[in-house]
């Protein structure tokens, strides 16, 4: 009988480490399937709104980080660190194009609706488009028109998703309890948890350990 591995990922769109962690997970998953092609891997994405009190219209990106980190020099150092980590996994992040730190509540509601209506491939395409729109094109993920356009590009009818774009600043409440220690957070079969944009090898090790524990449980007493 084929083994099954469920991976629950807790993330936010505005967190560059979540995008970096996504790439590390993709690499780890490919490594696992090259070693154990019989394993069925199921990935569930759980949105976590890191800034639930962000104004509906967002906040100027530079102002937000200057206030958070204390100085332009600290912001520059942090962005350089992130860009280096991103480039190492093949991700291009262009901070110079990001004008707004958005309220991501509607983006999370949209992805949740897409996960209910569409195929896993459509959901994954939408997630990838959101990340690209924000970190590479500098688009505002709090903008209703931007979100609808991306959804339609991924094959979703506007009429099927537009009601979840409330635009009222109401916080997104999802299954975020698993991310108490921060995002990105990866849970493997509900047994093992890895927090942060860890190397693919660390995620692969957690996958192997979760599969071994599951196999032990299936063995007759």
TrEMBL record:
Annotated GO MF terms? oxidoreductase activity
What are the residue boundaries of the DSBA-like thioredoxin domain, all occurrences included? Answer: 6-206
InterPro entries, alphabetized: DSBA-like_thioredoxin_dom, Thioredoxin-like_sf
Which CDD domains does the entry link to?
Answer: DsbA_FrnE
Task: Name the coiled-coil region(s).
Answer: none
Domain of life of the source: Bacteria
Which parts pass through the membrane? none
Q: Name one Pfam family in it.
A: DSBA
Q: What is this protein called?
A: DsbA family oxidoreductase
